[in-house]
Amino acid sequence: MSDATTHSRSNSSAGQTIRPEEAAHFGKLAKDWWDPKGSSAMLHRLNPVRLAFLREAIDLHWGGDLAGRKPLTGKSALDIGCGAGLLCEPLARLGADVTGVDAAPENVAAAAVHAEGAGLDIRYMAGEIGSLDIGQFDLVTAMEVIEHVADKRAFVAELAARLAPGGLLVMSTPNRTPASRLLMIGAAEGFGLIPKGTHHWEDFITPEELGDLLAEAGLEMSKPQGIAYSPAKGLHLSSDLSLNYLVTARRST
Length: 253
Fold this sequence. Notes:
Structural class: alpha/beta
Radius of gyration: 17 Å
Order of helices and strands: HHEHEHEEHEHHEEEE
Enzyme class: transferase
Catalytic activity: a 3-(all-trans-polyprenyl)benzene-1,2-diol + S-adenosyl-L-methionine = a 2-methoxy-6-(all-trans-polyprenyl)phenol + S-adenosyl-L-homocysteine + H(+); a 3-demethylubiquinol + S-adenosyl-L-methionine = a ubiquinol + S-adenosyl-L-homocysteine + H(+)
Number of helices: 7
Helix content: 25-40%
Function: O-methyltransferase that catalyzes the 2 O-methylation steps in the ubiquinone biosynthetic pathway.
Binding site for S-adenosyl-L-methionine: 50, 81, 102, 143
CATH superfamily: Vaccinia Virus protein VP39
Strand content: 15-25%
InterPro entries: SAM-dependent_MTases_sf, UbiG_MeTrfase
């Protein structure tokens, strides 16, 4: 089995997944999170791609109506590392009873204000996911999060613990490749497309490592799908996994 923590920076105490410096970094971005031209502009470009993958995964998992506007009606959803709610709000519009959790109190405060202004009833909480008594959820999402946590193994175990029987887990994360080092850190952060210090390449996780961690937690991972970039298409779903990828997972049978 691969050790997904081999390449990561030094971890905090076992089971602690939040890195205080990471929470502080993202907390400083809270006020600009919903500005499509601000510091989170790349997330605004990425979100439609993630949502397309997520919608298809939801329909395939629950056999829903492909044309239905609220396929998550009657289901609960948990978005871990929710930031200011960029994914939580679409999940709520898809019909889910949504809870968003983030390490930075500034982010959940901004998320709550934005949701109220949009007329959406979303529960937001700040803190360590393992310390929150929030139960289990039909859908659990962790988008662009695992590369920021202190203990990846503990984090994946917490994801599995929050997944209700018959539930679906959806994750996205950068791959640890020469291409991701060059483009996501060298180019994107170098040219100001992403705030400097957002990513640390040694913390990126390969699909094989993620699959091992999910299997260890009793989950079976789907075939990964890449998120690629081209000048013609922009960010788009692709078979190319070299930059970023998405997966689903469910309890092993």
